[in-house]
Amino acid sequence: MKAAEFQAIYVMWLRQMKRFIRSKSRLVSTIVQPLFFLLILGSGFRVATFEGVNDYLSFLAPGIVTMAILFSSMFTGISVLWDKQFGFLQEVLVAPISRFSIIIGRTLGGATVALIQGVIILLIALGLGVEISGVFGLLLTLVFMILIAFTAVGFGLVIASKMEDFQGFQLIMSLLIMPLLFLSSAFFPVTANPTMKTIAIFNPLFYMVDGLRGSLVVNVATVNHPLLDLLVVVVMCIIMMGAGSYLFSKSEV
Amino acid sequence: MDIIKTDNLTKKFNDLTAVDNISFSVKKGEIFGFLGPNGAGKTTTIKMLTTLLHPTNGSAKISDFNIVKDRDKVRKNIGVVFQEPALDTELTGGENLDYHARMYGIGRNKRKTRIEDVLHLVDLEDKRDVFVKNYSGGMKRRLEIARGLMHYPNVLFLDEPTLGLDAQTRRAIWEYIKKMNKEEGTTIFLTTHYMDEADYLCDRVGIIDHGKILVIDSIENLKNSVGNDVITLSCSDLDGLIKRLEKEDWIENIERHESLLTLGVEKGDEKIPVIIEISQSQNIQIKSISVRKPTLDDVFLHFTGRTIRNQETADIKIPPRFRSRMG
Hints:
The structure holds two protein chains of two kinds.
Chain A: H1 3-22, H2 24-44, H3 56-85, H4 88-93, H5 99-127, H6 135-162, H7 167-182, H8 194-201, H9 204-216, H10 226-250
Helix pairs in contact in A: 1-5, 2-3, 2-5, 3-5, 3-6, 3-9, 5-6, 6-9, 6-10, 9-10
Chain B: E1 2-13, E2 16-22, E3 25-27, E4 31-35, H1 42-49, E5 57-62, E6 65-66, H2 71-77, E7 78-81, H3 93-103, H4 108-121, H5 137-149, E8 155-159, H6 167-183, E9 187-192, H7 195-201, E10 204-209, E11 212-218, H8 219-226, E12 229-235, H9 238-245, E13 253-257, E14 260-265, H10 268-281, E15 286-292, H11 296-304, H12 308-314, H13 320-323
Helix pairs in contact in B: 3-4, 4-5, 5-6, 8-11
């Protein structure tokens, strides 16, 4: 690969980072929203008893981390639409760099932003007294976080290539992502309800939440072994990134 | 030497032919303009030449590189200023230029000096560290022109470079375009639907309408090809004079504009005394009379049978989603 391609990847990454750091409202909202979830849901449901859950906050924390990374990364993918509407995409597309580098740079940028947010929430959760399983678990958690970020950026790219405006994005968020998130065991275990448990098998988000939970915290039972979840998430990640970059490279301005 | 050469370039969107078998060439170092109304296929042509759209048929070469087969080499050789602003408004002007230079593989030291150079060219040195979202429309345009020049392109494409700018800013942009054509030796391909712009800037103009090139020539020749002068006059009895003048076969066309009459004639200055004589014999008093060389407006009218303004109000039928792609 030529030096200009690395420069292009770096530029795409740097641009994401600068925009993230400069956008104070985005910085605040992406941290405050999950924090509210953690604090309010966490203290509200603490008294409830779920089967296999000894500490609700420990149960909830991985769910919220997943949610934060998911939303942030999807936003990155979707923001291609922004660049399309504001014309900046054309500037990138006429540059003598491959579309693959553009995708890589953008994905890395989005994933980095999402990881920063995820880690901040993780640290807050630790501060609130969530017990974690150890160094290996933490490393595995990091792997999950990266994979979730990449998968969601890929999904965002797919949507961005297929949509003309932002109304469609709102629709997908409320009709697809929110229900999937509720059924992913991010907020409560789905194992108690047989229907929900069946649905969970087909819910991509379920494997993310379950895997992250299994690798991060103790005191909480998970459905699958984290490594099984990891396998599923890796496959989904490859499919989503592949589909996202294929559709992006095919799109004309 | 021809720096751009197209051969039957064609682009179809479903059953709409936006660009229809156009063949033309642009010489190194010249300012070449595509003049035509919105929807004529100007932007589509630029998008094909800049590798953003695949031609349906035909081919084109820029600096001898094929726009389909050697896309990367073509991209290295061109700079583009799009019709809509294509800047990242969340970044500063300097950052926009720096990121651009990186993508074109320009080294660190060269980047620095080049940014200074191009900012100087468009008088934006003091705005380097200002966020682009705080720039005015004219400043954004200037920054884009500067950015288009960053990587020393052989050809700079300008798609409607002064669209939506006020008269003063347009003048300034024109000066910048002339300056970089002269100082950097950059060949410039621009599109416009402003007659005065094509008249002021271009060495040669192609008139394009409905995806077809009607004529390509120097401004001078185009005006001469209309072959007549335009006489404008006002008098005490317009209707009477029109009636009388309609009998004269040396008048190519007569048009009435409220209180004014325009006549298309050969050798206008010799015809003024004749017209005065005729009107005196009819007891019609001439109040004013003048002769002028035809403008590009007249040329456009001559080749298309319409003025550009008429065209725009009558707008041709384009499916809404393609409307933004054309023009």
